[in-house]
Amino acid sequence: MRNQGMGSWPARRARMTPERVALSYRGRDHTYRELCERVNRLACALAASFGVRRGDRVAFLGVNQPSAVETFFAAGLLGAVFVPLNTRLAPPELRYVLQDAEPSVLVLGEERDGDGLPGRHLPARDYETLLASGSPEPVDEPVGHDDVCLIMYTSGTTGHPKGAMLTHGNLTWNTFNLLVDVPLAHDEVVLISAPLFHIAALAQTLVPSVLKGGRVVLEPSFDVERTFDLIESERVTVMFGVPSMFGFLARSPRWDKADLSSLRHLLCGGAPVPEPLIRTYQERGLLFLQGYGMTEAAPGALFLGAERSVEKVGTAGVPHFFSDVRLVAPDGSPARPGEPGELYVRGPNVMPGYWRRPEASAEVLSADGWFRSGDVGVADEDGYVRISDRIKDVIISGGENVYPAEVEGALYEHAAVAECAVIGVPDQKWGEVGKALVVPRPGATAAPEELLKHLDGRLARYKIPKYVEFVAELPKNAAGKLLKAPLRELYGG
Amino acid sequence: MRNQGMGSWPARRARMTPERVALSYRGRDHTYRELCERVNRLACALAASFGVRRGDRVAFLGVNQPSAVETFFAAGLLGAVFVPLNTRLAPPELRYVLQDAEPSVLVLGEERDGDGLPGRHLPARDYETLLASGSPEPVDEPVGHDDVCLIMYTSGTTGHPKGAMLTHGNLTWNTFNLLVDVPLAHDEVVLISAPLFHIAALAQTLVPSVLKGGRVVLEPSFDVERTFDLIESERVTVMFGVPSMFGFLARSPRWDKADLSSLRHLLCGGAPVPEPLIRTYQERGLLFLQGYGMTEAAPGALFLGAERSVEKVGTAGVPHFFSDVRLVAPDGSPARPGEPGELYVRGPNVMPGYWRRPEASAEVLSADGWFRSGDVGVADEDGYVRISDRIKDVIISGGENVYPAEVEGALYEHAAVAECAVIGVPDQKWGEVGKALVVPRPGATAAPEELLKHLDGRLARYKIPKYVEFVAELPKNAAGKLLKAPLRELYGG
Predict the structure, then answer these.
(1) How many domains does chain B have?
(2) In a domain, A444, yes or no
(3) What residues of chain A lie within 8 A of the CB of B15, using their CB?
(4) Residue A18 with chain B: CB contacts under 8 Å
(5) B20-47: per-residue pLDDT in tens?
(6) Do A348 and B4 touch (CB under 8 A)?
(7) Which domain holds residue B237?
(8) What is the ipTM of this complex?
(9) Which of A368, B89, B378, B395 could disulfide-link B93, Cβ–Cβ 3.0 to 4.6 Å?
């Protein structure tokens, strides 16, 4: 095959193990042979009916379902770029992303309609007919590792989402980094209930499973009872989750008597993992592995492998084998052990840049390939890094990143808001939730509920603060710049 | 690290697991921290004392010993090219290779002296002193995947050995291909008694072990008793061998009572693997995995994974995940299932060419990246390939390739030889051995023993035919071209 990218993986895997089950969904099994054939037909049909060519974008909006997986691989087969959309985004946010990505087609999941969204759509009711119209003749575009495989949107300090471009090479090398640390076998049963529109589920579970010939048990979303049911009935061996998912499981009444004996590797990431949570799993005799990453690094940067997962609990581990991490002190020198430093990542897994955002790309990527994470870490004498703070002010709520600047921007659109700041406060269930501190305009009388209602529909639900508090003033430095640290001290408890 | 190549692997591994044992040799354990430090010092010392720079060659002559491993990684750290020499070569053959490779230094194993060999030498007695003189300051050359990592000499139809250049990327991708099929864990104990100057031991065992953090038990050479001792005492989990090695073990009186319970994966290759041998191991409950490869593909092309190792026994399997194989019928069309075709390989593991031999490279490498193996295979309906014949006429004796043209060339230097042809004949112990068929010059009276004595010292011992037979004439076609097929039929029994 000339195609060296992700799109060729179903065919490469089907060459080896055509009859193994690739995907189980709602009780139906799809073998690798079927996956390969369906992906090929879909690619041909997308090219024929929507004119999808190399470099074009193919968007997908929907919760986890087989068409999401097939669209990802079919886009790759054509050398086109997969753009998975966060289903939790509000309509204006989705419109913004679609106008930025300009996909040739938006493939819709079963539960979605495309009302009000720009561009051409492929509704779920037409999906099978379109797929069946595609030629079974193998597609083989010369796709290389440097070609862009997907664009994943991530917000940032600027408020507007940016599309992180990940190449086929980025995803491939991330897979190798993972395989060095996690010896996935050929008979893994991989439960995916975290959303595939986030990099972790896609890159840490789906892609490695197809490489090794494992079976993915695909779930539309996470549910505690269903997770226990599936672990027991499907004999799940691998699962990825954000800390809040693992927290829900451990606090469930089923936790004590559930049969978890099939589990080999639990992968946790997407947010800081509380030590007590890790210990709860370790005390159960489970291998609970965590790391640190970001969409821009496809995503793995640091990983705490099995060998020292108990001894170094609470740290995010050491750099992955093929990646490098450095911590830079405020004066630009390398941070010494015990000293905080901003975390930079370099390696074949680091993105080439943001889609159509050369300035934003240049801000985070240096000429020699270092990606500036905006997070602060402290390494111990053995090089194990603890993530201590986030320069970017991001709030991580249930595994979703919430950027205060974006929420503040939406709040400022309300007439009653003179000044505002959004901070994260600890939450037992979600890790963190947002709290908005608002200085009202003189004479304005909006209640907190009214401000929350104002945000509803403008922002994804997970971005909307849980608390709104009116304050007389916000702390600032001499230059008038808002100071978040004292705010967190005053209001973050 | 800027170094993305093999040379950086000890440091990358030491970052993760500094205290794990990398190498056990003669009862002494070397941790990854030690390996990393020693490789770094050696690299600095080779640069300082022998002027080794990027692209320069560093040769090694000796049986398996820690300095072979260290020289391989140290060369890679400098971006220099490792040239391991076959210890079985006769002095004129070694001189030829050294004159072709022009190394900056020849590192000598403990059991060797460099008498009569060209260039500068590093004798074993000076090795530790030199290494200790090297700076511990980390070396970090910007070595990429396209840089040449090593040159391995292989003979061919032309008679003279050619240096197959393998890049860091070639070896890296071969490792990934292997890891897809063989789920190496982090606690493997890898017995290496096959010589590291052949690609299989280096690329299928040493390199993957360092990637995963396994422990290599290094032996200077293969010995049946010692192998059983080590499997039992070191609890060996992985072993590579050529078929004759596995044959010796299975025919040993110790076979029946040996404790082989620690073995997880036996990897066999380098020559056609007899089906009864595979079954002997499988009946013992062992996972006996085989493939097909060549130095030029670093080396894996086909692999028969665990899942169908019994069902498809006798075939060399299907293409590795990231590599492609095609079979080409004599008329240039793709061979259909059941039809023989010449085997071509393409993928990121295929060499860029032979050292300083553009014509020889162009003969075997097409513009679009296909390597022409010279071997013939037949695929079944499932794509499993059985290697059926070798266009190149190569004889594989105890895992060493013997090219008849080279042996015939040496025979022709004897005055009594008018015409000759060397063919392979089956041998219980070595798989194949050479048989020379000689038409004597009119009036000449040389005995077979005299011809064998003539070859001694000119050729490596393993290349010298076991049998010499005088014949009245050799079969030829109308154009006078020697026909080997009827020769094999007449004399190959």
Answers:
(1) 2
(2) yes
(3) 318-319, 383
(4) 382
(5) 999 999 999 999 999 999 999 999 999 9
(6) yes
(7) 6-379
(8) 0.89
(9) B89
